[in-house]
Design brief:
This protein has strands at 7-14, 22-28, 35-40, 43-47, 57-62, 68-76, 79-86, 89-90, 98-104. The protein is an all-beta fold. The strands form 2 sheets. Strands 3, 4, 6, 7 and 8 form a 5-stranded antiparallel sheet that branches.
């Protein structure tokens, strides 16, 4: 194993109603399995203790089309925030097999 290789989490996300996104995990080499949570319409968190160090974590999300969009941010070294919007309003049900990838570099 290459010590410079990133730890990776690859998943396809789906979400409906007022619940957390459901991941179909394609690969996961993080220190554990991160947990998704529903915060409010169009706002979700992904948590795993000390797994997402600032300055070493990259997030790739392919979400939406047209006026639907998604954005991500690192809230702490243990939490990533995912937001989904439609016409600039936070909205549920925009995730259907949406590609989501995290790379964590040493």
């Amino acid at each position: 194993v290459d010590p410079a290789a990133p730890k990776v989490y690859n998943a396809l996300l789906s979400q409906s109603g007022f619940v957390a996104p459901v991941p179909t995990i394609v690969s996961n080499t993080l220190s554990g399995t991160p947990a998704w949570a529903y915060v409010s319409p169009g706002q979700y968190t992904l948590t795993l203790a000390n797994a997402f160090p600032l300055g070493k974590t990259l997030i790739f999300a392919l979400i939406g089309s047209g006026t639907a969009a998604g954005d991500t941010s690192i809230n702490s070294n243990s939490e990533i925030v995912l937001n989904t919007t439609f016409n600039a309003a936070f909205t549920n049900i925009l995730l259907t097999n949406a590609s989501f990838k995290i790379e964590v570099y040493p």
